[in-house]
Write a structure and sequence with these properties.
Layout: E1 3-9, E2 15-21, E3 26-29, H1 36-52, H2 62-69, H3 71-77
Antiparallel strand pairs: 1-2, 2-3
């Protein structure tokens, strides 16, 4: 199995979605949804985003890596 979604009770009421890999390791936890119906709609939305979404690197070193990989920096090193 490649992975799965779980609907779980949120600690403050409502429901959350947990995304687990095939081995059962936690990959992500959603926001709290007020109803199961809303949580199921959230799963559908997560599937859509996962299939088509781009990756945005907002990590601390994102700018540094981008500068190192840009064509301008390669030409400057030559």
């Amino acid at each position: 199995m490649s992975g799965y979604f779980e609907l779980v009770d949120a600690p403050d009421g409502g429901y959350r979605i947990r995304l687990l890999d095939g081995a059962g390791a936690l990959m992500a936890v959603s926001v709290t949804f007020p109803t199961k119906r809303a949580a199921v709609a959230g799963v559908a939305r997560a599937r859509e985003i996962a299939g088509m979404g781009l990756i945005r690197d907002n990590s601390r070193d994102a700018v540094e890596r981008s500068a190192l990989l840009s064509p301008e920096s390669s030409e400057a090193e030559r």
